[in-house]
What we know:
There is one protein chain. By secondary structure, the chain is α/β, with parallel strands linked by helices. The protein has one domain (11-141, 217-294): Alpha/Beta hydrolase fold, catalytic domain (Rossmann fold, 3-Layer(aba) Sandwich). The chain is 37% helix and 19% strand. The protein has helices at residues 49-55, 82-95, 108-119, 137-144, 148-163, 173-183, 189-199, 226-235, 253-256, 277-280, 282-294; strands spanning 11-17, 20-26, 34-38, 60-64, 101-106, 124-130, 200-202, 208-210, 240-245, 265-270. Strands 1-2-4-3-5-6-9-10 form an 8-stranded mixed β-sheet, sandwiched between helices. The radius of gyration is 19 Å and the shape is globular. The relative contact order is 0.15.
Amino acid sequence: MTLALPASGPTSRTFFSQRLRLHYVDWGNAGAPPLILLHGGQDHCRNWDWVAAALRKDWHVIAPDLRGHGDSAWSTDGNYTMAGYIGDLAQLIHQQRLAPVSIVAHSLGGNIALRYTGIYPDSVRRLVAIEGLGPSPRILAERADKTMAQRMADWIAARRALAGRLPRRYASIEEALARMQEQNKHLSPEQARHLTQHGVNQNEDGTYSWKFDNYVRGWPPYDMTQAELETLWAAITSPTLLVYGKESWASNPAEDGRLAHFRNARVASFERAGHWVHHDRLEGFLTEIGGFLGA
């Protein structure tokens, strides 16, 4: 199912965090309860347009572009840390006085939102995280076998590779669209075209490139420990919905033990859905979160 998008879209706005000019879209209805939609890695805020269009009558919907993504500024040193992302979300909520806010977040955005909520549990009313728990316990165990020296060396090598990786240039929107459809077979033609049109900039030579900074592909060599993450999950007091697509590469938290670290969470799994559940099963997703957010 693809919902028809309204003729009038959101208003673009900006805010500042850690000296970066960051972008978000505001869908209006300022008197309604606030709802933040937070996208995933290598994505952009207009990925939420169908969800926002369905919820805008009952919510004041705000969808930011993460730093290095969409129409937000790129980090000057090419570093993209979880601390930076969390700080940006905290600044948006603080500056716009949104707390207590409800959050619906996907992938990297879900990881950011879960950590933010564990740090500021009183600032979040309800939380929906689509495959936002990060790597599975199996992958984490494999990573744990590497020493800090190995992780640092891998990170430096990856940074060098990214430094030499020029942004891919597509001769036309249609060529970029084909790449979008290749990445997610569940997308309808309308969805894929909309996501592509909002996800690229036109270069001076007339070609098109994705808006995100290539450096967002990298991951820092160190982060919070798994025990620290589990402590943050346990600190979340708001009702939490962990969404999982049964055709995704991600691990189901109800089966891998991670659900046990939450006080008040449940898992909603979707058949015929991959990592982008909110695109792959839009109608079912809206029904599920509509009941959850409004409960």
